[in-house]
Design brief:
- The complex is a heterodimer of chains A (90) and B (130).
- Helix content of chain A is 0%, strand content 63%.
- Chain A is mainly beta and 90 residues long.
- In chain A, the strands form two sheets. Chain A has a four-stranded mixed sheet with strand order 1-8-2-5, with no helix packed on it.
- Chain A is globular, with a radius of gyration of 12 Å.
- The mean pLDDT of chain A is 91.
- Chain B is mainly beta and 130 residues long.
- Chain B is built from one helix and eight strands, in the order H-E-E-E-E-E-E-E-E.
- The chains are: A mainly beta (90), B mainly beta (130).
- Chains A and B meet through strand 4 of A and strand 1 and strand 5 of B.
Chain lengths: 90, 130
């Protein structure tokens, strides 16, 4: 089964200039940033991570599902909200 | 003369066999696989395994071992098969904090062994590639 990831960009809720990736995950897994494990994902939980401004290689490894990879650009003062889900979930 | 040749042959054979630890097992390698395949078909392909640790804020007193693997195989913990591994998919195993001897066996690849320390609230993330 495949993994889909919905994405949206929102301003930093604190109004600052930091860049972050926020994940609400369907399932248990690991988020890799630029090849390194960076965030532990739990089903139905939100986790977030500050990252340097710029482009990053994002990889979701979720138990039992195929790997999902993409380049994601995070600008200063923005938070990229990502929601991995099973392809058959709505 | 024949006795001397025989002795030299015996010494050479002993020197070329892998050393074993006090339990009779092969010693862990520190990164690259260096051990002959242990009954997994063993065509001699190389397995590259990377390992790092990531904090799990919800991990509590336990830890976990996560592995993404290139191929189908098994993960053994202290000699017991604990996970079946599929191509390009994550497999996870909750464990108590402690030291474990991890072995990875894939068809056609050399066996890989390593000792990992899992701390409470941490996940050891391993990636196995050909």
């Amino acid at each position: 089964m495949d993994l889909d990831v919905d994405q949206a960009v929102v301003p930093d809720p604190a109004g600052g200039s930091s860049s972050a990736i926020e994940v609400y995950s369907c399932c248990r897994g690991i988020l890799f940033v630029d090849g390194d494990p960076a965030l532990v994902l739990h089903a139905g939980k939100t986790a977030w991570l500050e990252v340097a401004e710029g482009e990053h290689r994002i990889t979701f490894e979720v138990e039992g599902l195929r790997r999902w990879e993409a380049n994601v650009t995070v600008a200063a003062g923005e938070r990229v909200y990502m929601k991995p889900r099973r392809r058959d979930d709505f | 003369m024949r006795v001397a040749v025989l002795l030299i042959a015996i010494v050479a054979a002993c020197a070329s066999s892998p050393r074993r630890d006090e339990h009779g097992g092969l010693p862990p390698s520190a990164g690259q696989d260096q051990h002959p395949c242990g009954g997994t078909g063993g065509l001699g392909g190389k397995l590259e395994v990377t390992q790092s640790t990531v904090l799990d804020p919800l991990g509590g007193e336990d830890g976990a071992i996560d592995i993404t693997s290139c191929c189908r195989g098994v993960l053994l913990v202290d000699g017991e098969i604990r996970l079946r591994l599929n191509e390009d998919k994550l497999a996870s195993l909750d464990v108590s904090a402690g030291r474990y001897r991890i072995a990875l066996e894939f068809e056609g690849l050399r066996r890989y062994e390593v000792v990992v320390r899992v701390a409470a609230g941490e996940r050891v993330v391993m990636t196995a590639r050909r």
